[in-house]
């Protein structure tokens, strides 16, 4: 027999990194919160379903992690990102012909951000939710129905439970059920690209430098991780055209290592594969609106971008920060039309501008024609050489006004 409807302030649909962070943030802020996700979170690296990608939390994202009690759990596992290094290797040979360093010390006395594996984020976030009395986390349960009214939303769950909520937060990914049920259209751009994600060890210490190497097909990015079994370690995101990414993913380990070492320009010495390889399709997607009656979209339910400049999850946490700020300022108005209109007005134009910028950067990184690769290197050199421009670019990348 179906249960009576449960009442809550916030129902979060989606238990990925963004959804779990949102649950911790709303629960810590004093709102009764239910978080559901059809898939139980995978919290060990060796599990076949583990998400081997990593997330770099940029500086502005730390505030929401601290206030939700997540940061103290994550900090011991985080690798700081002090320098963002961009290398252009678009010459005849796969070797660095232009290197430019963006150093966090130019704009702050703290690093740009901190990098953590996604599977570990889930492990620590789930543990934090268990400590929060106002949060009810229900893994293995999906949202299957949504009816909204002026007075609130009624959500049906896959186990037959009915929940009435003042606000429904859609954090259920690029194919969001809540977004579709709310009738919000999306605009999608596909690049014919896929990203390989995996971790490596290497003999040369990374010294907290995140390195993005541009040649063709997309950037090859090495992001610092804490040492692995006593050796320096980095996470790699290698973006390539789809067929080439699938070919690389299927190579025997020795052939794959040879290919990745050629592509890395030897920047950290001989790279050794330390995990399995996962493949992710690349796209840009933005919802026509980030709100509907009693519904707010955050993270990939609202926007999807290629993993360039660590923007993806940090845009998601900026969504959360904005939404939570509006709810805390006037808790009586949570989920009301004026509050949701403010959220959409603050976030949609900002996300659209970033989406356009990342799209241009990605297209520039994909170019194969040699004259265009030369033009890319010249543009990078010119932008970097002007110190005020360099500082502005760094601040814009961090989302700092």
From TrEMBL:
Pathway: Cofactor biosynthesis; ubiquinone biosynthesis
Protein name listed in UniProt: UbiH/UbiF family hydroxylase
InterPro entries, A to Z: FAD-bd, FAD/NAD-bd_sf, UbiH/COQ6, UbiH/COQ6_monooxygenase
FAD-binding domain sequence ranges: 7-352
Similarity section: Belongs to the UbiH/COQ6 family.
Keywords for the protein's UniProt record, in alphabetical order: FAD, Flavoprotein, Monooxygenase, Oxidoreductase
Secretion signal span: none
Native source species: Rhodobacter flavimaris
Obligatory cofactor(s): FAD
PANTHER family with a match to the protein in the record: UBIQUINONE BIOSYNTHESIS MONOOXYGENASE COQ6, MITOCHONDRIAL
